[in-house]
Design goal:
Helices cover 27% and strands 36% of the residues. It is an alpha+beta fold. It has a single domain (4-64, 73-84), classed as Alpha-Beta Plaits, CATH 3.30.70.330. Strands 1-2-6-3 form a 4-stranded antiparallel sheet. A two-stranded antiparallel sheet has the order 4-5. Strand 4 and strand 5 form a beta hairpin.
C-alpha cells in the first residue's frame, strides 16, 4: 500500500477549482492513478487534519501535442474532487 504522501501528488489551483471551493467547499487534487476513493479520503484526512464527506475521481487523458512534424502525448493522470464536511475549512494558500 502507498503512503499518504504518495497518494496525494499535489493540489490543483485553477479558476474552476477556486469557484467550486467557494461555492461547495470542494478541493481538487492530482492523485496517484492507482488510488481508490477510500485511500484518497484517508490521505487527505491524515495530511490536512480535516474531515472528508465525499470523494469523486476522474481519469484525465493526456493531450496529443505536435511541434512541427513531431507528435507527442502528455501523460494521463487522475484527478480527485474532495468534498469537506460541513463546518470544515482548508486554506491551502495562506496569506493571500
Amino acid at each position: 500500500m502507498k503512503s499518504v504522501y504518495q497518494i496525494i501528488k499535489r493540489p490543483l489551483f485553477t479558476e474552476k477549482g477556486a469557484a467550486i471551493k467557494e461555492a461547495d467547499n470542494k478541493l481538487l487534487f492530482e492523485v496517484f492513478p492507482g488510488a481508490n476513493k477510500a485511500e484518497i479520503k484517508r490521505a487527505v484526512e491524515e495530511i490536512f487534519k480535516v474531515k472528508v464527506d465525499k470523494v469523486a475521481t476522474l481519469n484525465v487523458r493526456g493531450k496529443i501535442k505536435a511541434m512541427g512534424r513531431f507528435k507527442g502525448k502528455r501523460a494521463d493522470w487522475k484527478k480527485a474532487i474532495v468534498t469537506l464536511k460541513q463546518g470544515e475549512n482548508l486554506d491551502l494558500i495562506e496569506g493571500v
